[in-house]
Write a structure and sequence with these properties.
446 residues, alpha/beta, 5-stranded parallel beta sheet, 19 helices, 49% helix, 11% strand, disordered N terminus
Length: 446
Amino acid sequence: MTDFLPRVILVEDDEPLRVATEQALVLAGHAVTAFGNAAKAIGAIDPSFDGVVVSDIRMPQIDGHELLARVRSIDAEIPVILVTGHGDVSMAVKALHDGASDFLTKPFATGHLIASIRRALERRTLVLDNRRLRLTMAQLEAGDALIGDSPAMTTLRQSVRQIAVTDLDVLFEGETGTGKELVARLLHFESRRRGRPFVAVNCGALAEATAEAELFGHAADSVPQTRLSRVGQIAASNGGTLLLDEIDSMPLALQATLLRVIEEREVHPIGAARPVALDLRIVATAKSDLHEEARAGRFREDLYYRLATVRLRVPPLRERDDDCHALFAMFLAEARATLSKPDFEPDMAAHLRLRQHQWPGNVRELRSYAYEIVIGASAREPAAPALEKATLPQQVATFEADLIARTLARHGGKVKAAVDELRIPRKTFYDKLARYNIVPSRYRSR
């Protein structure tokens, strides 16, 4: 829904009362769209709706309680104010318990309704602002995931940007912690679907008993223990991107149903009379070689070929040369800011670990390590014996390389400033850069 849509949706089957309430709200400065029944009102609401719903409770077909449930299935944080001329304490308690923003009984003072609407609008504005902030942070994280000038990352970055302009489905494979989800987010933000939903489904966390309802949704009265309908995660991504994270962990029983979604671009909620057409891009991630999994019979081969329209590998940290240092510098700055320790400097043992450790947990492990040493919880003892066992020339070289790297980081990669601080000839400085494979550009602000 675009920005020009009304900020108040009014649902009232009593026409004279509907007209009078609409006029009062317009005079109070609100843009209003009024409906005589709930079904039409529901069609005007989506997760980007930036206003408030005001509805009568007692209406034919879909009453106010059912309307509340439908709105909450679209977005649980859209405020709904319920109004009734037959209110009692139990009805009010039920409405508020079900998630209503407020509850008014007829006859009510127009000023009370306007005050309730304004409070609800303030809350809705705050919710949408926070969502935009989280979206911005996710965009930054997606960009950070591709920091690095190693050949592997340069190739991946170019591939993602080339594919983003198409609408092809993509399979990202890579070890745990390599940043596959963040790369998938970057693909979404670089595409025409930017600003539309990005729904991430953790396939490894799906419980077989409820997975079908979570993914595909269900109609009202079609699932035990609930009378309400539910929008599934697949339908929630309509118009945007659906990320199937750790698809190799999805139960085999679900894979056949998912295959139809991918082939037909439609989803059939449990108990619904007809399927729902979808416009979405599907991105999947896998921590294992999905082709090998399919050949071994642990994954449906036909589903693999549907998912792997484009297949890209996210490299582990050990294959990314000196990207480790640039990433560590970024995570260290993040940890300093988050933990309010702007003057923290890692010690020699921390830098030695950075050079010697293989980082089997990849970028995720490196980020955790940056926070650990800033907090002071990192066990530095294991690194000390390695330093003690090194020869004197090795220890001197390690110290010299780390000192140069820290100086460059402190000056944002500016060579002249680093040379001036270290007080050595520029030629000597460049010789040492070449000896230790240090690239100043990796320490410049990003």
